[in-house]
Amino acid sequence: MHGRPRQETIGGSSPSHPNRWRILGVLVLALLVTSIDHTIINVALPQMVGDLGASAAQLQWIVAAYTVVFAGLLLAAGSFGDRFGRRHALAAGLMTFMAGSIVSALAGSTTMVIVGRGVMGVGGALIMPTTLSILVNSFGDPRERGKAIAIWTAASGAGIALGPIVGGMLMRSFSWSSVFWINVPLLAIALAGTHHVVPDSRDPEATRLDPVGALLSIAMIGSLVYAIIEAPRSGWTSSSTLMSLMVAAMAGGLFIRSQLRREDPMLDMRLFANRGFSAGSVALAMLFFAMAGTVFLQAQYLQFILGYSPLLAGAALVPAALGMIFGSGVGAHLATTLGGRIAVVTGTALAAGGVAVQAALIDGASYVPTGLGLLLFGLGAGIAMPTATDLIMSTLPPARAGVGSAVNDTVRELGGALGVAVIGSVAASMYASDLQGQLDGIGGIPDNVRAALTDNVGAALGISNSLGTNSAKVGAAARDAFVTSMSGSLWVAVGLAALATTIAFVHLPKHAPAHDGHAVPTAATSASRT
After folding, report:
1. Which among 331, 270, 281 has a CA at the least distance from the CA of 1?
2. Where are the domains of the chain?
3. Measuring CA to CA, how many Å separate 403 from each of 77, 123, 396, 397?
């Protein structure tokens, strides 16, 4: 990107592919599989506790392994598609995702599940940015492109919300491995569509691959998430936690330095001078932080605390999907009539309110606060995400869409990975501390049993059944500690979503409504504004 003239941006007009809507259908199917797998695993976690003996940290890594690898490889994967062809990258991603799904389905230990989820993350890193880059190269008309991006964003968000529903339906009749087997036929259909419908495209002036940058980004993200997940067990000031944080900081610094010094960087750091690019990226990261962390806790809350079956727990998350689908249409209308900043600000504020409803009102007895909060959050996310995505993608020419898509996806996945890690770790710390205090009041419980009880609520409820006269007291204490910890940790998500609202309001540019026939300002023009 250095030394290359910025010509037509994605915000301008260009010829459209005659089969663009059929292409979009294939892309949406491929995207749905990767999106569903962010959350379908959550409803299977309780059964994994019983079948595989998974600890709280292992449960977090089963969820996070996918997103950590996914986020770490996205930038390199976007460059790979631009250089070697986006259809080939999409096909390779679909096949890799299928291999990881099979490994996970056949796993006999939590370690193998984590490994399989990591392989799926490699496939997802190839699939997700490629779908968006193919989209922007297939839709030349700005208005049609805006609608297509809204559909793409709605599919991504709906997949995350629908994951627990699909998982719940499968868990009703099958074991936890079914949440991986379901991927195989869907991926086969997507592969066939890729071969017959999706055209190939690439950047004729693609940059060289950057393996050093890719390794540094993986080291940065992996070390950071590892430290956050393991800190409640080993201590926030322990040598292992501090060492992991130090590795993350050093890798991050080296990554930024390497990108600034390369003539053709994997990520042009100058893009962050564009207000739409940087503020849109931050807003997306914070929204996915709140979404991923909330869904991670909700799946356990609905089953362990409210006593829902996996199917009912999945159905209980439907309001988020409905809100997101409806919100995508509202967001596109707001962006067109009032401008992108209004759409992003409105959406992030609604999302913050949705999480706040849950944090303030959940009581361990009623579903109403959960349902209302999920609906509001889904509506807000649906309004904000398409416009934020469009602002990011509008800073690059269509030939470089793979890199732009990878940046867009990286901030989403990094936000999601950190959401599970941070909110999960805060909840785990608060749960252990609260339950320890309650167990002191009950008395008569050995230290080794206490350690198991305070690890996670699923283990506590299982163990409490064998504690005789203390069974009911311990079970009630575990449920109460989980509700308290969930409420407290969700306020972290509220704060991040509210901060996203502030950043969007202050830093998003006051440009003309999206897709009015003019290109969205480029990095150079946007950076020159006051």
Report:
1. 270
2. 20-210+262-439+476-527
3. 8, 17, 9, 10
